Amino acid sequence: MWENRKYRFYGNLVYYLVKFLEKTMKIEQIFPKEFDKNRNYVMAIWHNKVVMTLLGTGFLKRKVALASPTKDGELISVPLERYGTEMVRGSSDKNATKSLLKLIKKVKEGCTVGTPVDGPKGPRYVVKSGMLYIAQKSNIPLVPIGVAYEKKWIFEKAWDKFELPKPFSRAVVIFGEPYFIEKNADLLDEALLLKEKLDNLDRKAELQIKNKK
Could you give the C-alpha distances from 164 to 77, 152, 153, 173, in angstroms and in order? Predict the structure, then answer.
């Protein structure tokens, strides 16, 4: 109980930090022409860019996210909730049936779901099948998201080498083209494809930052 209260306190500190970043940063969002801001999606992002799920998706009306039943999950759930995101507790592994079924239900009801695809504990940049499974079973398009920061701190000791943008700097968020996961698709193959898309979008975001310096 004390541990949960402690990490919820830290979570509130994260919330105020993110609000400060929101006020001081210039965030450029880039959308493909196929992207419809008025519909829902399954969104995919790397764990070390998770700050942008708060700063870069404010246009979404109904959001739901998965939080792991860990200290890290408690830490991130507080700011997400305060930004209007409904939380579902559980694992992003395909075998975590209960939490995935809850998310599928929420997506079918019109919510956008977004959870880091290599979380909650890695390995870094290895896509787990949870979000792919949700997109496949709900028949809702998947949108990969690429992120780059002009200036950032990197937490080298964290498993994901977490990236925190610095105040008064720029960030670029690129939303990829929405695409469907076919009902008979092999999710291992889809995981490799999604990794390629995420890596390409991150590279494009980095180029966008460099070209405007």
Answer: 17, 5, 5, 14
